[in-house]
Design goal:
The complex is a heterodimer of chains A (260) and B (303).
Chain A (H helix, E strand, L loop, with lengths): L3 E13 L3 E8 L13 E5 L10 E9 L4 E7 L3 H7 L6 E8 L13 E6 L4 H12 L4 E7 L8 H7 L1 E6 L6 E2 L7 H4 L4 E5 L2 H13 L3 E5 L15 E4 L2 E4 H4 L2 E3 L8
Parallel strand pairs in A: 7-8, 7-11, 8-9, 9-10, 11-12
Antiparallel strand pairs in A: 1-2, 1-6, 2-5, 3-4, 3-6, 4-5, 12-15, 13-14
Chain B lengths: L5 E3 L2 E3 L3 E3 L21 E7 L12 E4 L2 E4 L8 H12 L5 E6 L4 H12 L6 E5 L10 H4 L2 H14 L3 E5 L7 H10 L4 E4 L3 E4 L1 E2 L4 E2 L5 E5 L4 H12 L6 E4 L5 H9 L2 E6 L2 H4 L3 H15 L15
Parallel strand pairs in B: 3-4, 3-16, 4-7, 7-8, 8-9, 9-10, 10-15, 15-16
Antiparallel strand pairs in B: 1-2, 5-6, 6-14, 11-14, 12-13
Classes of the chains: A alpha/beta (260), B alpha/beta (303).
Chain lengths: 260, 303
């Protein structure tokens, strides 16, 4: 898939909860956005942030082809992302995209799929679920958070599949971690997809591995280049050290050397 | 439009802009972003005689106006390069230069010999300055005696243009540069990364798996300029300048300090099209300054 360095225009920058921003972007000249698939990411150039030297890798939250919009869900965690949270409608944002490989979507639409997201890791699951639904696959989302106030875009998720929620404080959905949710025992799944904090992904990968469910996870090792040339973001795999940015960020758990 | 072509030994560059090893992959990764044929040259990833897995993750820390890396020369070895990557490079109308690294003199020699047989590789860059490997690498580049030994040994088997990449992690870089020149190097390139360190205060841990790593990016430019100027005044072979070049102005500063050619490194991560912008910017500068040839400004610092 061809990669571009692209200037996009901020349409909307919506603060979600206290420390997340949903940034909606479009092209300046009404040209259609380039081809991109769920699971890929972009590298954002953050301007006017003296402590932000490198671009910031951000996963693709959603691509609205009808309105020609690219959505990024950003956790405002350091200087660079906080600066992104200050963008206003009409501002320019420079991106390199699309980067990395997407999730594997089953060609057999009868497959039962579970899309698991935690925290800001829910971001790529929205676009993945939407694309799967478009293909006629029934989607179950399992979203986990510390508390109700950490859950985002629930109305959006509800458009594309069945919503299952866990919170650690029981403020919404079932109490506990995603792996404690009753859907895991009440329904049989063929394929699972997970993005979130590493302990959560390891727990989901172990569940999948124990139950014979296919599982892909999305990693976020610290990156510099985003295009597979600096070799900084490597993950140790069955094929040795490989770049998360270029060979990932999506990996089948069978390729990883995680202790499950 | 001024003449931009320069020479390094027998190596002819259509302009002084090359890319630094380890920041540009094998060039082809950038084909979506720039016309590779426009580059004066590109130095491919550090290549060793055998496959190397490199250092454990984490290998990178962002620092103010720069970054640290601890990759440790991960590469699939020179034979893999020759079989799988070299064929993809031969149609690019630029100079593909192999960065040759090693742990022993024998390794350097063996890798250089294999590169000498490649018709479309007109030069090698001998990396005696990698700070991220335990054996070899920087050890060769931090004493004039060991630098001379490895350069002499490689010179014997490598007839084409031999560029020696110098470490800034030394007391006097001109001593090493002179040793390389006296041992037969056609050119020296500098600087490789500066040894640095990053700490996570909350966790009380180093950020890099190797504790220390190599620093690059905009922050190192003043040190690189100083060393290029010192080496330019100490040797008679062409100097290739690198270290923190982010734009055309930075590049011109290196030319003025005596660099015949340049390498752009970390800036490729931030703007994958930076190289062609630098070429255009040098051209504009020369026109503005009324220069007909880039050689008019090489070493042209008014002091």
């Amino acid at each position: 898939m061809k990669k571009f360095i692209l200037d996009l225009k901020v349409l909307e920058n919506q603060r979600i909860q206290s420390n997340y921003a949903l940034i909606k972007l479009t092209t300046h000249d009404s040209q259609p956005l380039p081809e991109m698939v769920p699971g890929q990411f972009v590298e954002v150039l953050v301007e006017n942030s003296p402590n932000t030297f490198l671009r910031r890798p951000i996963s693709i939250n959603f691509v609205d082809r009808q309105n020609n919009e690219l959505w990024l869900l950003v956790q405002l965690i350091g200087d660079g992302t906080r600066k992104m949270g200050e963008l206003n409608a009409g501002d320019n944002l420079n991106l390199v995209l699309p980067l990395g490989n997407g999730f594997t979507i089953p060609t057999d639409t009868a497959k039962k799929v579970l899309l698991v997201g935690g925290g800001v890791g829910t971001a790529p699951m929205l676009y993945l679920g939407a694309e799967m639904q478009k293909m006629g696959i029934e989607v179950d989302f399992l979203l986990g958070a510390r508390s109700e106030k950490d859950l985002m875009q629930l109305d959006e998720f509800a458009k594309y599949g069945n919503l299952h929620i866990t919170t650690e404080d029981a403020s919404k959905g079932e109490k506990g971690f995603v792996t404690n949710h009753s859907i895991l025992t009440s329904k049989q799944f063929d394929n699972s997809y997970c993005c979130g904090p590493k302990p959560m992904m390891v727990a989901v990968a172990s569940w999948a591995s124990r139950n014979g469910v296919e599982c892909e996870v999305s990693l976020e090792n610290t990156m510099a280049c985003g295009i597979g040339v600096c070799l900084c973001c490597v993950e140790k795999t069955t094929e040795g050290h490989i770049c998360v940015c270029k060979e990932g960020p999506v990996f089948n758990i069978n390729k990883l050397l995680w202790q499950l | 439009m001024a003449a931009l072509n320069v020479e390094i030994g027998d190596l002819k560059l259509k302009n002084p802009v090359m890319t630094a090893s380890g920041t540009f992959g094998y060039g082809i990764e950038f084909a979506d972003f720039i016309d590779l044929n426009r580059l004066g040259g590109f130095i491919v990833k550090g290549t060793t005689i055998h496959h190397r897995e490199g250092n454990p993750y984490p290998r990178m820390a962002e620092t103010p106006m720069g970054m640290l890396n601890a990759v440790g020369l991960q590469n699939k070895g020179v034979d893999y390069f020759i079989e799988n990557i070299y064929p993809e490079l031969i149609d690019i109308d630029s100079n593909a230069i192999v960065n040759v690294s090693g742990s022993t003199i024998e390794d350097y020699v063996a890798t250089a010999e294999k590169c000498a047989a490649l018709k479309h590789i007109p030069a090698i860059e001998l990396n005696i300055s990698c700070p991220n490997v335990k054996q070899g690498g920087m050890a060769f580049g931090t004493s004039p005696k060991s630098a001379a030994e490895v350069v002499k040994a490689v010179r014997k088997v490598y007839p084409k243009t031999l560029i020696v990449k110098l470490s800034p992690n030394v007391t006097d870089i001109t001593e090493i540069a002179r040793a390389a020149e006296e041992s037969g190097a056609d050119s020296v390139s500098l600087i490789n990364t500066l040894l640095g360190m990053a700490v996570n205060a909350e966790k009380r841990t180093p950020i890099l798996s190797t504790i220390t790593g190599g620093m690059s990016g905009a922050a190192v430019k003043p040190i690189a300029l100083r060393m290029v100027w010192q080496v330019y005044n100490a040797v008679n072979i062409p100097v290739v300048g690198l270290g923190g070049i982010m734009n055309a102005t930075d590049a011109i500063e290196f030319l003025l300090c005596g660099a015949t050619a340049l390498q752009i490194g970390t800036a490729n991560f931030i703007d994958p099209a930076v190289t062609v912008k630098v070429i255009d910017g040098i051209n504009e500068y020369l026109d503005r300054q009324g220069c007909k040839d880039v050689k008019e400004i090489i070493g042209g610092l008014r002091v």
